[in-house]
């Protein structure tokens, strides 16, 4: 008559499959309580009510014929829903429960509406409807049960007395209570299993997030983001795009490597890469690779703001790196590193092949093409602290960045000499209104970027400069005082 709840069991089973094998300890197995078992239990409880009611003359004796139906129907329903076309029907469980409601309502009507047995059967039906389909199923089940009840009453009429003998009432209540308790127990077990599956999924999700963040350190953030959002497939594919390409290396690094211990050199190099990477990411650059003391970065893939903006961001990044390198050099000098480290940079703009190169089981996201070679060549020709750019890059940024013509060079892969330019600075930072000032001598270094200074920091810097000026003046006057007493 009634289908046992299995939605939670199905959901938990799916979650378990998604998680893979259950852990060896602490796992709660989902109890097997399918519709078939629940229906057998409910119809057996109803059969017991019929037998006791007939023996106590609460029901007419001909109702014993319903015992065969009560014992056969669960098996028949199981076969219909598993071995016939009904198995392909959507929401078959809810539909079969409505059939149970009609049968249950008809049984209540055929008993003549004897109160306690009628309420007991109705409780089993409504309990199952609420668990399986919620309020909607409960309303539909009530309507179908009412139809069955009306048909049963119309067939035999109401009983002479709506009261049932004590034993029949106790048997009806006990049968219904047993069904509800067993069903509630399995529902509780299913809820526990579902909570365990939810916890496992949450733990696995946290592990996956932690692992993805670890793996992300081996990829550029833009590439990692495009892969994890599904914008890019992880397969061997490339495309031609116009990119701004950047190369840099450290002038003097070879000499420094001969003076420093490998551990100290590694720490210095990692610090340099970390600082430069933060600058690159600030401007939206895709970090391709680190080779020795060299860095390769490009703009325009996997995201682009337009060729002009990409080129401007690339050159802006180079200028910022040059300024940042001066600050880092002063810090290294205070740590005892006397070799003057300078960064030199080259930038070109043009078409390159970008994408995944390599094998199916090991690929590298990078770029190739003659513009890559040009950027590398410009970097090798640059003087310490110099930024050399190609003509196309110059044409894209010349209105906002001041550059100096450096003539032409011959590069392999280019049929004609290539005009190159040296980046001076942002046009807005030239002249008396420039925001960045620098001054460096032995024993003194100053790098001032007024746009990045807060008002509180401004006052502290002014006091420090005033103290330094007073100290210099005092030391300047000291020889005169010594001469007077000499």
Automatic annotation (TrEMBL):
<dbReference type="GO" id="GO:0006171">
    <property type="term" value="P:cAMP biosynthetic process"/>
</dbReference>
<keyword id="KW-0472">Membrane</keyword>
<dbReference type="GO" id="GO:0004016">
    <property type="term" value="F:adenylate cyclase activity"/>
</dbReference>
<feature type="domain" description="Guanylate cyclase">
    <location>
        <begin position="244"/>
        <end position="379"/>
    </location>
</feature>
<dbReference type="InterPro" id="IPR050697">
    <property type="entry name" value="Adenylyl/Guanylyl_Cyclase_3/4"/>
</dbReference>
<protein>
    <submittedName>
        <fullName>Adenylate cyclase</fullName>
    </submittedName>
</protein>
<feature type="transmembrane region" description="Helical">
    <location>
        <begin position="101"/>
        <end position="133"/>
    </location>
</feature>
<keyword id="KW-0812">Transmembrane</keyword>
<dbReference type="InterPro" id="IPR029787">
    <property type="entry name" value="Nucleotide_cyclase"/>
</dbReference>
<dbReference type="InterPro" id="IPR001054">
    <property type="entry name" value="A/G_cyclase"/>
</dbReference>
<dbReference type="InterPro" id="IPR007894">
    <property type="entry name" value="MASE2"/>
</dbReference>
<feature type="transmembrane region" description="Helical">
    <location>
        <begin position="40"/>
        <end position="56"/>
    </location>
</feature>
<feature type="transmembrane region" description="Helical">
    <location>
        <begin position="139"/>
        <end position="159"/>
    </location>
</feature>
<feature type="transmembrane region" description="Helical">
    <location>
        <begin position="62"/>
        <end position="80"/>
    </location>
</feature>
<keyword id="KW-1133">Transmembrane helix</keyword>
<dbReference type="GO" id="GO:0035556">
    <property type="term" value="P:intracellular signal transduction"/>
</dbReference>
<feature type="transmembrane region" description="Helical">
    <location>
        <begin position="166"/>
        <end position="186"/>
    </location>
</feature>
<dbReference type="Pfam" id="PF00211">
    <property type="entry name" value="Guanylate_cyc"/>
</dbReference>
<dbReference type="Pfam" id="PF05230">
    <property type="entry name" value="MASE2"/>
</dbReference>
